[in-house]
Amino acid sequence: QVQLVESGGGLVQAGASLRLSCTASGRSFSNYGMGWFRQAPGKEREFVAVIAWSGGSIFYADSVKGRFTISRDNAKNTVYLQMNSLKPEDTAIYFCAAAQTGWGLRRTDYGSWGQGTQVTVSS
């Protein structure tokens, strides 16, 4: 298991950018696939993006493709989510998660979760 802490959320206007960070503590961060999920008020937590342990495989939800970029720095035990051209519908709590299997598109693929960071996009 790894412990995850997100940061970088905030309140921005539509069209702006934010970069979220998720730093892991514990062993073997580089062995985990890392994902980002989000949960808007009254909605279920949804998949946003995933990056494999090496960074060689990446997948995005259609809703963020072309605007968000996931990356990782295994030397710093950190995964990032660069969010550009933000829209009001991107407003949510964003969670990072670690998948010991190395990959996952479903919440159940992930065994470790951070506490979340709020992103609010005003119109």
Tell me what the structure shows.
This protein is mostly beta strands and about 120 residues long. Helices cover about 0% and strands about 50% of the residues. It is built from no helices and eleven strands. Strands 2, 4, 5, 6, 9, 10 and 11 form a seven-stranded mixed sheet that branches. β7 (about 70-75) and β8 (about 80-85) form a beta hairpin. The radius of gyration is 13 Å and the shape is globular. The model has no long low-confidence stretch (mean pLDDT about 95).
Characteristics of this structure?
4-stranded antiparallel sheet, 7-stranded mixed sheet, mainly beta, 11 strands, 0% helix, 123 residues
Average pLDDT over all residues? 96
Oligomer: single chain
Give me the strand/helix succession. Answer: EEEEEEEEEEE
Indicate the low-confidence ranges by residue numbers.
none
Short account of what is shown:
By secondary structure, the protein is mainly beta. The chain is built from no helices and eleven strands. The strands form two sheets. Strands 2, 4, 5, 6, 9, 10 and 11 form a seven-stranded mixed beta sheet that branches.
Please specify the SSE layout and strand pairing:
Elements: E1 3-7, E2 10-13, E3 18-25, E4 33-39, E5 46-51, E6 58-60, E7 68-73, E8 78-83, E9 92-99, E10 112-113, E11 117-122
Parallel strand pairs: 2-11
Antiparallel strand pairs: 1-3, 3-8, 4-5, 4-9, 5-6, 7-8, 9-10, 9-11
